[in-house]
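Students often ask why we bother encoding 3D structure as a string. The short answer is that it lets us treat folding as translation between two languages. Here is a chain of 933 residues written in the first language.
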Amino acid sequence: MIHMPPTASTRFRPPTPVGRWLTRPRMDALIDQVELRRLTLIHAPAGFGKSTVAAQWADELSRRGNKTMWFSLDDDDNRTPWFLGHLLECLRPIHPDLDESIFQILEERPEDAERFVVPLIINVVHQAEFRTVVVLDDWHVIDDERTQRALARLLEDSGDKLGLLVTSRTATGLPLTSLRVHDQVVEISPETLRFDEREARQFLVDVKGLDLSSTELTALHTKTEGWIAALQLTSLSLQKDSDVTGLLDSLADRQHGISDYLAENVLDRLDPKLLKFLLFTSVLDRVNPELATLLTGEPQSELRLEQVLFGDLFLQRLDDSGTWYRYHHLFRDFLRQRLERDHPEKVAELHSLAAHWFHTEGIFSSAVDHALLADEASFAASVVEEQALRLVEHSRMTTLLALVEKLPHDEIRSRSWLQLAIAWAHCLLHFPDEAFASLDLLAEAAAADPRLTAADRFRITHESLVVRECVAMYRDRVPEDQQLRREVLEEAERLHPWTVSVAANVVTFFDIHRGRGAEAERLQQWAHQYHRQVVGSFSEVYGDCFAGLIAFHNLEIALAQHHWTNAFRTACERSGRQSHAARLSLGLVGKRLYHRGEGDRAEELLEEALQLGQRAGVVDFMFPVYESLANIRAGRNDLQGAWDILEQGEQAGLSLSLPRLWSRMVTTKQRLGFETRRPTNPFDAADDHTDDQSAGDRYVMDRQRAEFEGELLRFDLARILHDADGDALARLGPYVEVLFAESQGQGNRFQALRDQILWASALEACGQTDQAEETMHDVIPDCQASGLSQPLLEGGPLIRQIAARLIADPESWCLRQRTLDWMTEVFDSNSPLRANLGTAVAAGVAGASRTWGTGPDEFDVLAAVPKRSISLSERERDILRLVDAGYTNREIAGRLYIGQNTVKWYLRKLYRMLGVSSREDCVQRAKNLQVLH
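And here it is in the second language, the structure alphabet:
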């Protein structure tokens, strides 16, 4: 897997001193406070030695047993996913559990990646046996509020296992108020950083070897006010000219610009060749000998860099091998100003040379930055364009869009291949409007580009079609025609495997919803050869997920298990355990476990899949996650939790304009007994087709209207479970038969089975017991044959009543003994399969059992999702002790210096681990198991 985002490893190395550190006892005395606090902020203007102090303290903290890491920030870190990616890269050497799959979250969820990545970092750091300290150097370059909020959350929720040592020119962008309240911050101001007179003497006389009297030292200290950079420049000036009196007189004439004068004084005294070397390499943020030779023509650049380093000319070594260096920011700025003054004609040329070097080395972000500074926007755009489709294929959509964001709009607009990649990126990130806008620009660019060959135009035209239809799939719109099959799949040999692979999945989705499951299954078998040629796992995972969905609809549960397990395994092997693809497949694995009665296991997987939020694929992958989790929560009387899950699903459906999703959430609310209004059909306002609608648009709308009307019928049946309205039941009867037929006609036997159970429950509620029994007599053998117990248990007391009569009189229904035994086990109150979900909520079954069984055919691949052992971490025990003492979540958060959401996360985890649903039961269960004393 390729790391995201592109960066240089030197950003994760502290500056290395040329000689020994300067001894500063009064600064060293602060290290005990630094070691105990979450945040140490060293803030001062440039040239106060902030990075040097941070490096010294990091070195001392390491000697004390802490693990310290260094992270130098730059402007790219104002893009929050890139900041988090760099932070992960910084932490990985000491926290290998932050594996590469976490980077995929940054690529796939650019809009809210911090929601998932920050808790992962906190949890991994907290589980370590050591304390982690991260130095964030130059925080002042971060002015993006989202990045600042991400760091604030990390600070506020991290606990005592993580410390941040931040250097900055300002004190903004950090949650200082809350940290001060909890005594969790050490603040180092310019006044503290300034050299006192003793330190100035030690630096100028003992370290730099200057022969200065006490009077001269006092005068220099007074004039520079202990500013370290000015003292360093002073030492360089006096090494060339020992006239202290003359220097002091010159400084006396300048109320401002002391540093400017001293820098000029130093530069003017340098050898011209050395000065040229400094000026030409100053265009770089980091320099190595090869780059320096390229920019300066100096054949012995390695020796020249050593000369600069040991000449104390504000150059810092970034690694032990002497490969990379950087100038102090203040001195670099002086050099760049001098370069602009003395050699303005060279600036663009130098940036151009750097741009092409970084391009060759594959450091594309730096290549783009230098190309733009060289006024070579066309080259910058070419760098991005040549990598664009490759980045998409590697699922690095966020990296692509961040690079595109750097480019001038005019350079983007006319580039066909770049627009195609941008359209793909927006499509796969579920931004349909942006995808369509890019496709429109692509059409304009392609029409005006004479360089495109016939083969190029063929590929662009057909890939554009795939993008449009892929967006339609995510928007849950099934077209009437077979254009994609005809124009893409039948031309597969002329197209890129990525294009064919995605097209096959889109057509599979369409075929499933056209009731052509067998054709869709054959298509996936054919498409496997193309899935395997794609670099990333996404297409193959989608293909297996769709194949499993077809099998599940046909009640071929073992085959569905095979496909979904394979999807999960593929995602883990090729994209990583934390990837979008892995979590997508986990949601379907959780669906299968839930419907087979394995609720505890299902809940773990469904909660993880829920983190995908509104980017969880097609609707068929989304609503089982919300619906199943809500049923599990309701089954253990966590009604607020069930409501919250359904609200989340409903809002996702509304915000993404997915009526099939949000209407299913409303129906589930009604079935669980929540007060809710009957949804209004959004297609009623469009009953009459308008003249400007195409036949295809009318077909799509008619399908959506029919699907919504089916969901309204389920809502009305769910209402009857609670009000037993016989007249309403009679009115709905004819439509119910049509609903069954439609589900069967679509090849969805599973949905037809659930609809029949809902119908039987409504019949039972209205006293029509014979019809209810007859309906269930058709349903139960299918449930038993497929091993699906949960659809029956969702029916609650009404279905149990029917089942009890069937079990009591098996001969009248000709039930086989095997089916009878299975029914008895499912509905036995002492059975491990018993779950008491569904309408048990409305019936007031407050003590519903939450004991679940383990299926006979556990997934081997789920060893990658370790089962919980009853072993509590110290943080979990701390939280339980405070719960036992009667503290609220807010009070617990305050005492442990963590966020309230973190407390809730731990409690939910403990509920699931211990099999309870209340705070009191959680504490008692932990005590009974002797894991809390």
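Translate back mentally: The beta strands are 39-43, 67-72, 132-137, 162-168, 185-188, 315-317, 325-327. Keep this in mind for the problem set.
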